[in-house]
Amino acid sequence: MDFLEFIGLIVFLYYTIQIVLWITLDCDIGLFIASIYGKPINSLEGKIVWITGASSGIGKELAKVLAANGIRVALTARNNRELETTKEECLALSRGKLTSNDILVLPLDLLKFDKHQDAFNRVISHFGRLHILVNNTGRSQRAEWSKIDINVDRELFELDVFSIVHLSRLAVTYFEENNIQGQIAVTSSTAGLIGAPNSCSYTGAKHALHGYFESLRTEKPHIGVNIYCPGPTFSNFLKEAFVDVQGQKYNQPVQPTDRRMTAERCAKLFAIALANNIDLSWSGIFPVNMIAYVGVYYPNIKNLLTKIGIRRALKNVRDSR
Hints:
This protein is an alpha/beta fold. It is built from twelve helices and seven strands. The protein has helices at about 5-25, 30-35, 55-70, 80-95, 115-125, 150-175, 200-220, 235-240, 265-275, 290-295, 300-305, 310-320, and strands spanning about 50, 70-75, 105, 130-135, 185, 225-230, 280-285.
C-alpha cells in the first residue's frame, strides 16, 4: 500500500466511523465524548443556576438533574404551583445535599419585560450571586408558511427571542460588572440548525437566537455561551404550540408511540453541555442526529436533498414518525 492509498484508507475510515456514530448516538459526537471523558455534572457544584421554563419538560428535568448533583437553582415559570412541585422533586432527588433555601421558586411571565430586573435582583438577593442563566422558555409551532398571520410571528418572537435576549443582557451586564466568568445557555432546537417544514416562525426564532448568541460569543469571549439544540422530545409543548392564527393553540398531545427522546435524557445531556461549557451541541434519536450533522457541516448536500424531495421526510421526523 503506497502513501496515497494509506491516506485514502484513513479518510474512508474517518467518514465511515462518523456516519456510524451519527446513526447510533443520540447526540453530537463532541457531547458524547464529553459525557464520558469531560467534566461531570457535579463539577458545577457551588454555582448558582437560574432556569426559566422550569415548571415542565426539559427545564423541569434539568433542574432535577442539577439538584441531584447538589447544585443550587432558581426556578422560573408562570405557574407557581408547578414550580413548587418541581422544587419538591428537586429536594427529594438531592438526598439531603440541598435545603429548601437552596432552591428559589420565582414565578415570572417573561413577556413582562419590566419585571425582569426585579426578578434578577431577587435571585442575587437570595443567593448572593449568579453563574449560569439557562434560557429555556419558549413555544413551538405548527402552521403552513403562507397562511400565518404576521401577528403570530411577532408574538412568537416576543417570547422565543426578545424575552430571552432582554433577560440575557441583564445577566451579561451583571457578569461583567462583578467580574464573573458566567455562562448564558439557550435551549434552541434542531430547527435552529436546519429549517423545519410547517414551523417557520419557530424555525426563524431559533435561527435568530443563534445569530444573537453567536454574536455575543464573538464579542465577549470571556462569557460562556451554550446553545443546546434538542430534537423531538417528550413534553407538553405541542399543546401550547402556536398555529397560524393569533390566540389559538395547536392543542395536540404528544403520543406515547412517537419517536422522541425522553425529557430526562435530554436534560442530562444539557447538564453535561453546561458542565463542559460547550458552545453548540444537539441531541435526538436517529435520524435527527444525522440530519443535524448534514445541516451544519454539509449544507450543500442538505440543499440538494431538499430539492430532490426530502421535505416530506423532514416533516415526518419533525412529527416523530
